Amino acid sequence: MAKVKVSFAPSVRRLPSYLHIIRQCQGNGDPYISGTVIAQELNLEPIQVRKDLAITGIIGKPKKGYPVDALIAAIEHYLGWDESHEAILVGAGNLGSALMGYQEFQLHGLKIAAAFDTDPSKVGAKIHGVTIRSMTELEVGIKDLKAEIAILTVPSPFAQATAETLVRAGISSIWNFTNTKLKVPDEIVVQREDLSSGYALLSVMMQNRKTRILAK
Amino acid sequence: MAKVKVSFAPSVRRLPSYLHIIRQCQGNGDPYISGTVIAQELNLEPIQVRKDLAITGIIGKPKKGYPVDALIAAIEHYLGWDESHEAILVGAGNLGSALMGYQEFQLHGLKIAAAFDTDPSKVGAKIHGVTIRSMTELEVGIKDLKAEIAILTVPSPFAQATAETLVRAGISSIWNFTNTKLKVPDEIVVQREDLSSGYALLSVMMQNRKTRILAK
DNA sequence: TAGATTGTTAATCGATTAACAATC
DNA sequence: TAGATTGTTAATCGATTAACAATC
Fold this sequence. Notes:
Chain A is of the alpha/beta class. In chain A, 46% of the residues lie in helices and 17% in strands. Chain A has helices spanning 9-28, 35-42, 46-54, 68-79, 94-100, 103-107, 138-145, 159-168, 195-214, and strands at 32-33, 66-67, 85-90, 110-117, 126-127, 130-134, 149-152, 173-176, 189-192.
C-alpha cells in the first residue's frame, strides 16, 4: 500500500461529512464521485478531500473519481462503522434521552443496549426503546452486556465519580458529554463532546461580524 | 495593549474549559489562579494556557497568577457572554428539547425566546418553559422577537430550506445541529455542531487502542 | 487524443512548544 | 532575596495548500 502521511484528527472528523455526500450520490445511482465534487459541496479544497480519502486506502480513477460503493465501504471500514459496538448510556436526562433517539448512531454500529439513571421513577421505563436501569446495577450491567462504550450524560458534578465506576466495570471507551475533563487511566479512550466550545466560537464570530460591519 | 499573535479557533474553543476551572477556584475563595494550575487540571501545557488567556487582554502577576474575578470577567467579555442574545430554536424534537433544557446557555447570555415546530400537536405547548409556535409563524416570529441567533435542530432533509427562511427573516447567526452543510450568504455566521465527527474520532481511537494492545 | 482528475512530493501556513528575560 | 510565574520572541511541529507528473 502506498505510504500515506496524513493529518489525523481533522481528517478523521471530516470523513462523516464525506460519507453523507457520497451516500446521496449513491442514491442518485452515480457509480463514481470525484474529490472535486465533494469539495465543492462542503466548501473545501479538492486536494484536502483527496488527502483525507487516501487514509482510508481507497484508490481513485483519474478522470472519473472514486467508485461510490467501494468508497463508502472503505470509509465505513476505516471508522469501524461496519461492525457493531455495544454501548450503555449513563444519565437518562434531556441530553441522554435525545441521544437514545438518534437513529443515525445505530446505522453506524453503535448499539445502546441499556441506560442507567439514579431517578427511581425512571427505572424500568423505556426511552426510545432503551430500558432504564438503576444506577446501582451499573457495574454488573456493564459486565452482563459486555459493553465497551459508555455514553456519559450525567450532570457534571457526578462525571468524575461515574467515570471511575465505569473504568472499574471494565469499560474501555467513554464518550463524554459533560463539561468535566475526566481523569482516567491512559488506556481508556475518551472523546469529549463540548457544546460550550462550539458556542464560544459562534459568539466570537458574531462579534467579529459586527466589528467587520461597523468598519465598512 | 500588547500585540498578541494567537491561534484563533482552537484557543477560543478552550476558553470555556478554562472558565469552568476558574469558576471552581472562585468558589474556593482563591483570589489568584496560575496558568500552571489550569494546565495541570486540563492536561495542557502551561504555555498554551498563558497564550490563550492573553487573547482576552488579561494581565497576570508573576509568581501569583491571574486575578480570578478579573479573569472570569475578561473571558466572559471576550466571548460576549456578559450580554444577552435573543435566540429562537427551530425543530423541537429530541435534541431541540434537550437544548431548551440546558440551563448553562442562559448563564452565558443565550436566551431561547421561542421554539418552532411543524407538528400541530406540539404547537402551543411549553418545553422547559419555552413556548412552541407553528413553523408557519417562523418569519414573523423572528422579526417580533428580534432574534439574532437561530438554533437549527430540524431533521437534516429540511435544514437547507429552513436556513433560507431564517436568512430571509433576518437571522444573522445559525447554530447548526444538522449534518447538512448549509449554503447561506457569506455575512451569515454559521457554527455547525457535528456529533458524527466526534463519534468518528472515538471510533478510530478505539481501533488504534486495540492494535496498540495487540502489538504488545 | 485531450483533458479532467488522481496521487505524490514540496512549499506554505498556522498552531504549539521551547527558551528565557522580566518581575513580583 | 530567591524562586515561581508571567509575557515575548524564536523554534518546532503538524496540517493545509500548491505544483505537477501520471493516467484513464
